[in-house]
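Mods, move this if it's the wrong board.
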Amino acid sequence: MNNYNKKGVIEFINTYFKSMNLKFLFIWALVSSIYGYIIIGKENIFKILIVILFISIIAHYIRPNYLKKETLKAVENFYKDNEFKNNVSVSFVCNNKKIDGPTFGILEINKNTIKFIPFKSNLQDENFIIDLNNLNKEDILLTERKWALLDKIFFKKISKIIKIKYDSKKVILQMPYIVETFEILKKYIK
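Not the wrong board. Structure tokens:
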């Protein structure tokens, strides 16, 4: 059974990648400005900033975004296939948030386990299974991301995360309809 619609998931993924691209653009512009200030000097800093901003905007629109395309294709397949739809579990599209980038996949919740299965076959080592019998309600938390200032201002839909602590590990998940998903997840925890 799938608990939210495809349109909301696609909107979430588009918002996520807009946010990621905006952060990249901001960091690149900042680093380039500092470099330009050091190399060229402060008398031409305004010209440098205009050139950097112009190049950044052009690069933003012509740079291919293969990860986004692959993720959207996987979401299409998820909604087309019935592989994850059954009566004993609830499946959600989510992002297993890590420092080295996004890992989008399926979060499947049933009466015994929480299972994350990445969409990409080369990321299968990032899947996890959490035994719900060893999980307390205090081990799962819905919270705002602390260092996500741009997301809190521009992209409120992706500023919240679900943290799950288990076996001295921590998993951070991002997904559309996160409050509703959190409530469903809490119902499965004894």
